[in-house]
Design goal:
Blueprint lengths: L1 E3 L11 H4 L6 H11 L1 H4 L2 E3 L7 H5 L4 H6 L3 H8 L9 H29 L3 E3 L20 H11 L6 E5 L6 H6 L6 E8 L7 H6 L2 E5 L5 H16 L6 E5 L17 H17 L4 E4 L8 H16 L17 H7 L19 H10 L2 E4 L14 E3 L2 E7 L5 E6 L11 E4 L3 E4 L4
Parallel strand pairs: 1-2, 1-3, 3-8, 4-5, 4-7, 5-6, 7-8
Antiparallel strand pairs: 9-10, 9-13, 11-12, 13-14
The structure holds zinc ion.
Length: 431
């Protein structure tokens, strides 16, 4: 299994979780937990190299709707969070729309890798199953699942796809976006007492399983098992898509399903094992989850899946996608060897040459700032400077930590990132 993640998935809105029901840094927290055990689970992390483009989105969404995504009003309506309406359009686009487009690109990359390399992929993000072709809903601006399926079909994938949606909410947007693709077999377990309660979508879902508020683990897992065995009869599948929302959790104020932490673990194990029994690779997406425990629940699922389905080699070569901090590399290079450098380096020029030159000159550890203006504001692309490694240590699990001194701009806990040559992004996560 491989993981897909980018620091750009995170919503860089300070204290978002205090005023809204979503922790904008959930994805970084998940990745932080995964990185701590990465050397033991030996997985590979890939990063999408660009956001989903308007052209990608047009495969599913109307131009008229996509045009409105530039407006704070649209974003506020989709998020059902009125204060966003008062943000300048460009700010809401950058802080809210773009992270979703990055996650959509991650989902598309996941689908591509799963199909072409027959490998299991966990995208730490995505699962925007409420977005319709002509409008967004329920926090979902673009439907990454439909984008992935449409892209795969355009590339010639003709086999059946199992869509297993175990998020607490019904995948109403997916049902509409993929209404005419009957090669996608939809299995959806959802809380019938909460949003979206959409009977039209229900017509498209092949195996709908309606759950009531407060269902316990036992009944939930029994129904899931039954639904999956019904789905087996409709196979074989070339690919399985899993929306593994953790909003089914018993403390979740939105999902209200009453499932325990152990119940979620068993659910994910059941679903992934079923995908394997079908002989199909899976693409897992994180979906919803609105408690302080959500990041932990997701990271447990990711780590367990990575442990169970092992390290998968293969896939396209070279940076910037591959982050591989395996033990073999550590033994070969020593901890973050090739990433040490004294002092700063002055670099200027165009991407990608300037990035490559900086990496070559520094032996590997440099800070990217996408505008090239020395401010880590996530806009554009360029090299701002070089960080010095002050200290490197291994923890008990063999994970490597680098204490770095950043000459300018890089703030801890803000989702900014350091690029380590050939190894990927290291987030500025410590104080
Ligand atoms: Zn949900």
């Amino acid at each position: 299994m491989q993981i897909i993640y980018s620091p750009r998935y995170n919503f860089q809105i300070p204290f978002l979780d205090r005023v809204y029901w979503f922790d904008g840094r959930k994805f970084a927290r998940v990745m932080g937990a995964v990185e701590k055990v990465q050397s033991t689970i030996k997985t590979v992390v890939r990063t999408p190299t660009s956001m989903a483009s308007m052209e990608d989105c047009l495969a599913v969404h109307d131009q008229a709707y996509l045009d409105t995504l530039k407006l704070s009003k649209t974003v506020a309506d989709v998020l059902e969070f009125a204060p966003v309406r008062f943000l300048p359009n460009r700010v809401s686009e950058r802080l809210i729309v773009e992270p979703q487009l990055w996650m959509a690109a991650g989902t598309m990359l996941a689908g591509h890798l799963a199909w072409t390399h027959k490998m299991d992929i966990y995208n730490i993000g995505g699962g925007f199953h409420h977005a319709y072709p002509d409008h967004g809903e329920g926090f979902c601006l673009v439907n990454d699942i439909a984008l992935m399926v449409k892209a795969l079909r355009a590339k010639g994938m003709t086999g059946k796809i199992a869509y297993v949606d175990v998020d607490a909410h019904m995948g109403n947007g997916v049902a509409h976006c993929l209404a005419s693709d009957r090669g996608v077999v939809m299995v959806d377990l959802y809380n019938r007492n909460i949003y979206p309660q959409n009977p039209r979508a229900l017509d498209r879902i092949d195996i709908p399983v309606q759950i009531s508020i407060g269902v316990g683990d036992y009944e939930y897992l029994a129904k899931l098992e039954r639904a999956l065995s019904q789905a087996s009869e409709r196979g074989p599948y070339e690919l399985c898509i899993v929306v593994a929302g953790t909003d089914v959790y018993q403390k979740d104020p939105i999902g209200k399903m009453g499932i325990t932490e152990e119940g979620i673990r068993r659910r994910d194990r059941l679903v992934f094992e079923w995908c394997k029994s079908m002989g199909a690779p899976f693409v897992a997406l994180t979906g919803g989850g609105y408690t302080k425990d959500s990041a932990r629940l997701v990271s447990t699922s990711v780590i367990e899946a990575a442990t169970r389905y092992g390290r998968t080699s293969g896939g396209p070569e070279g940076p910037p996608e591959v982050l591989d901090l395996s033990e073999e590399d550590a033994a070969e290079d020593g901890p973050v060897s090739g990433c040490r450098r004294e002092g700063d380096i002055d670099v200027s020029g165009d991407v990608p040459d300037v990035v490559l030159a900086a990496l070559e000159a520094t032996g590997g550890l440099c800070v990217q700032d996408r505008a090239g203006d020395g401010v880590f504001d996530g806009d554009g692309f360029g090299v701002a400077g070089v960080v010095e490694v002050e200290e490197v240590e291994l923890d008990r699990m063999g994970a490597r930590y680098a204490q770095v001194h950043c000459p300018r701009g890089l703030e801890p806990n803000t989702g900014q990132a350091v690029w380590i040559a050939g190894r990927g992004w290291l987030e500025a996560c410590g104080g």
